[in-house]
Write a structure and sequence with these properties.
This protein is an all-alpha fold and 267 residues long. The protein contains 10 helices and no strands. Helix 6 runs antiparallel to helix 9.
């Protein structure tokens, strides 16, 4: 009895022919690793359809005249990610205990832990870099007119992110718990307490009482490590969504050039 011919293989299962210059088509270790990575990505994408969202977020039109000033937002986000990664490593050794534990843990990280001084330095100076970058980004947004319709909500989110960045810097300043950190935080909280209406309540909330006590350090640590980073991450997600949805504004000199062209056309 004659056997039926085997059905043809589907196109995705057929091995593509080797490209010119690739020899006899035998794959090396790098090609095998690349193909394995593509297979894993395809498997995940088939079940989640994340490639569509990634293309929508990353591949979009940008106005003519876009320059390096537009990278300040991405630089700020990179600085935030640096703070998150280095902060996680520091939290593995840090102890928020006022009676010598906090200061000794910071000293141990700096002097004893492998690359501890490097990681702490990245976290310490990265906070200053993040504050500078977020102010530059806000300044660029203001002077380029990117806060106008229809981007008012994104501007409000950016202002809240600026405030949260300052809160994270302020709460993190106390964590080394040396003399400078203690007295600078005391002065800062007392200044907050002089504010109208909510000032005294804010001061009592930060202190955990009417004055500096044993719970103040742990409260600052919880705000710095849990509350503020979570809010910043959520608002950054909303911020990026609105940027991708509404697009990027053209530089002001580009808008001025367009206005001159329109005037000449009307005349």
């Amino acid at each position: 009895m004659p056997k039926l011919p085997a059905p043809p293989l589907p196109a995705p299962l057929k091995t593509p022919p080797p490209l010119p210059g690739q020899g006899n088509g035998e794959a090396g270790p790098l090609e095998d690793a690349k193909q394995a990575g593509i297979t894993v990505v395809d498997w995940v994408d088939e079940r989640t359809s994340l490639s569509g969202a990634a293309r929508w977020l990353m591949f979009r039109k940008v106005p003519k005249g876009t320059n390096w000033f537009y990278t300040l937002g991405s630089a700020t986000m990179f600085a935030f990610l640096n703070q998150v990664v280095t902060g996680v490593f520091l939290a593995m050794y840090y102890r928020p205990e006022p009676a010598g534990g906090a200061y000794e843990s910071v000293r141990y990280i700096t002097n004893e832990v492998f690359l501890g001084q490097f990681v702490r330095g990245m976290h310490k100076w990265g906070s200053s870099v993040m504050v500078v970058l977020v102010f530059l980004h806000m300044g660029r947004t203001f002077f380029f007119g990117a806060y106008k319709y229809p981007r008012e909500l994104n501007w409000v989110i950016g202002v809240v992110l600026l405030i949260l960045t300052m809160v994270m810097a302020f709460t993190g300043y106390l964590l080394p718990f040396d003399q400078r950190a203690f007295w600078a935080t005391t002065v800062g909280v007392n200044i907050n307490g002089t504010g109208p209406l909510i000032g005294p309540y804010l001061s009592d909330f930060l202190y955990g009482g009417t004055e500096f006590n044993a719970t103040t350090l742990s409260r600052f640590y919880a705000i710095h490590m849990l509350i503020v980073p979570g809010l910043i991450a959520a608002l950054i997600g909303a911020h990026l969504y609105l940027v991708a949805k509404l697009g990027t504004t053209a530089p002001p000199w580009q808008k001025l050039h367009k206005r001159h062209e329109l005037i000449e056309t009307e005349v």
